[in-house]
Design a protein that fits this description.
mainly alpha, two-stranded antiparallel ribbon, about 70% helix, about 0% strand, globular
């Protein structure tokens, strides 16, 4: 009984933490209120303290510290983003957001030590189902909140989030979680095959209703990747080098064909190669702002908290309202921390990529590919939306949990 109670407490803590990551981007643009960011940072410090206390109680604190040393690539960006407070255009926000980043790294590490990869995927799947259910309730019963009623966007589902793009990309991630569980159920011939199939189809329908092209493309690419990885898992010992060579050639040819027919491709979705006005906006952002502070940026997560910046981007892009994010996670990191900060972040980011690829090569089941799928998702999703710590830290938390699950659990002889 004590073990069951402890597990329930850990699960409750996990759910509470995940809620803390997405509340700032629910319904309205509340992450742009500095006072709320400060409150959020205080809550995160409380969660981090609990995580450290539990790690110490379970005698995992030395393992956690050892894993931090091994994952040294975390620190350059963490230190630099903290130093950026000194030159930030809004130092209070930069300080609060940096504290949230620090706490996210700690809490993510704790989650990675407490749960193996299969458990992480299953817990996230349950949380994803809750997101879809809550969103469906808002869409059906309070459409003024759950459905986009913006004068240039009508009828697209946004659920509990402030914008359809966020809902769409989150749904594409949930879709992959359901697909991983479905593939696992098919492999093991589990009794819950029909349940995961139904949830997978539900997520596809939900995704379609968000009318988010970036989410469509992310879903299509990742679904294809899941099936390729599953095929490799099943037949890896029968596949020869020539087969890999043929696959690579086909991918290159497909990429060339796609690149030369981009207008036709985007036309399928009633879009164009300007990415719905993003490219002109990015051009102005580089000329008017990034080129003015190219090396150090405007301070960690500080740029969009300045009203005149948002209004200037609105006028330049010809958008009806002030622009609140650059719609690209890497450009947002660039404008806030400069080329120096972006370079240090990429060391951290591709460090996780490297570990995820190595883990995928040794994977014995579909859950072993989750770290790689997660990193591919973050790469694709951040091309047309800001999902890496600009206005939420859900995926930063998951990346840290996966990193520690792979590296720290290995130190205690349990890679899960």
């Amino acid at each position: 009984m004590p073990k069951k109670n402890n597990q329930r407490l850990m699960d409750l803590f996990l759910v509470s933490t995940l809620l803390l990551t997405i509340i700032p981007v629910s319904y309205s643009i509340i992450w742009l209120v500095p006072q709320l960011v400060i409150i959020e940072s205080i809550l995160w410090m409380f969660v981090a303290i609990i995580s450290i206390w539990v790690l110490k109680r379970h005698h995992y604190l030395p393992v956690f510290i050892d894993a931090l040393k091994r994952n040294w690539f975390i620190f350059p960006f963490l230190i630099f983003s903290g130093l950026s407070i000194l030159w930030s255009v809004f130092w209070e926000v930069s300080l609060s957001r940096w504290l949230i980043l620090l706490c996210t790294l700690i809490v993510g590490g704790y989650i990675g030590l407490e749960y193996n990869l299969k458990s992480i995927v299953q817990k996230l799947s349950g949380f994803g189902l809750c997101i879809l259910v809550l969103s469906a309730i808002l869409i059906l019963f309070i459409p003024k909140i759950g459905v986009m009623n913006y004068y240039i966007i009508q009828g697209a589902w946004k659920g509990i989030f402030w914008h359809k793009n966020h809902m769409g990309l989150m749904t594409s991630f949930i879709n992959i979680l359901f697909l991983i569980n479905l593939v696992n159920a098919l492999s093991s011939r589990a009794k819950d095959i029909m349940i995961w199939l139904a949830l997978y189809l539900l997520s596809l329908f939900f995704l379609f209703k968000t009318d988010t092209v970036a989410a469509y493309l992310t879903m299509i690419f990742l679904n294809g990747l899941v099936f390729i990885l599953f095929f490799l898992l099943k037949f890896r010992y029968k596949i020869r080098k020539a087969h890999y060579l043929v696959l690579i050639i086909l991918l290159i040819l497909a990429s060339i064909i796609l690149y030369t027919h981009l207008d036709d491709f985007f036309g399928i979705f009633n879009r164009n190669t300007s990415l719905t006005g993003r490219i002109p906006m990015w051009t102005y952002l580089f000329k008017a702002y990034i080129d003015q502070r190219p090396l150090l940026g405007y301070g960690f997560n500080a740029f969009w908290y300045i009203d005149i910046h948002r209004v200037a981007l609105q006028k330049a892009a010809g958008y009806p309202d002030p622009i609140v994010i650059s719609d690209n996670g890497f450009i947002d990191l660039l404008v806030n921390t400069g080329y120096a900060g972006l370079f240090l972040f990429l060391i951290f980011y591709f460090g996780i990529w490297w570990i995820s690829v190595k883990h995928a090569i040794k994977a014995v089941d579909i859950f072993g590919f989750f770290p790689l799928l997660l990193m591919v998702y973050t790469l694709l999703a951040n091309i047309s939306w800001s999902l890496i710590f600009e206005n939420e830290n859900f995926f930063m938390l998951i990346m840290m949990a996966v990193l520690f699950c792979i590296t720290a659990r290995a130190l205690i002889g349990d890679e899960g």
